[in-house]
Amino acid sequence: DSGVTQTPKHLITATGQRVTLRCSPRSGDLSVYWYQQSLDQGLQFLIQYYNGEERAKGNILERFSAQQFPDLHSELNLSSLELGDSALYFCASSADRGNTDTQYFGPGTRLTVL
Amino acid sequence: AQKITQTQPGMFVQEKEAVTLDCTYDTSDPSYGLFWYKQPSSGEMIFLIYQGSYDQQNATEGRYSLNFQKARKSANLVISASQLGDSAMYFCAMREWDNAGNMLTFGGGTRLMVKP
To answer: What pLDDT score does A95 carry?
Structure first.
């Protein structure tokens, strides 16, 4: 158990809908990262938050947005869903201190868009 | 160009044998970190081992070791005494310190299958 929790574990929805994925980081970790794993794109970085502020953005679509709350949990919002958004979405967290900083991943949320 | 390349899509190894999973990387940043993660069929990503670009010695964690060859830009994972539970996808990843954030760039992965 990495200490990172994600809910829900599975999500099935229809095209055009909006969903929210939730992540709680490990105790003491200030950074939260979101990654998408799909068959065609592999594992891709979406966005990073550090202590409530957006720090870095990757290949995140405009239909997607995220935030990190004062208690450090984070939510990833996916809207106007398309079939191609079906993927495994991971949240990871790290203390973000020094060169040896390691990201620990949650169990993932498997999103299926029908 | 691919930043992380894993050239072996799939590999078989006999139980109790050692196996090497290849990873090459491409960066112009002198300061970077290399990571290996394991993804079993259940889907979670499990951190295995880390190597920093300035580390003088190869990293080791139990049965896992990292064969770091900086001049060749390779960071191969060696698993000794393979066990059936080692069957999984393995991903090599890199973090470059030039980036504003600490995001990881992943390779395409290698599926390891351990034969009894």
So the answer is: 87
